[in-house]
Amino acid sequence: MKTIFITATLFFLTFFTLSIHAQDTNSSTINDYVVLTKTIEQLQPIILTAKALKQDEGVNFGKFEVIICGKQIGDITSPEKMGDFISKANAAGVQIIACGFSLNKFKVNKTKVPKEIITVENGILYNFQLQKKGYKSITL
């Protein structure tokens, strides 16, 4: 009977110690994010979200990327529509990315894409690749 009690106690202590250690490990995990959007108007709430996450997570906040795809991709070449989103994104640690497939499909002049915006060949594929790397993802 004593042996069963001692074995059970050791089992529970080991289990709870490992559980607590796992929680400690998770608290130092870097969180990376990717958002796929079809409209420039979504940049404002996306940037605000990134700023809030950066403040909440501190050193655990990693990369935050926004991929713009779809038929409104041409809006990224309009200074009036982009406003100061690029400077706000940079200040918040947000990288804006344009989908090359959408730029081609909707015949957007790539030379007019702001230099701060990175272009990838296929935004949807890029999103999946980031998810494979552990990025938390949402599509708006």
UniProtKB/TrEMBL annotation:
It comes from the Bacteria. The keyword Signal applies. Keywords: Signal. The keyword Signal applies. Residues 1-22 form the signal peptide. This is Sulfur reduction protein DsrE. It comes from Confluentibacter flavum. The lineage of its organism: Bacteria, Pseudomonadati, Bacteroidota, Flavobacteriia, Flavobacteriales.
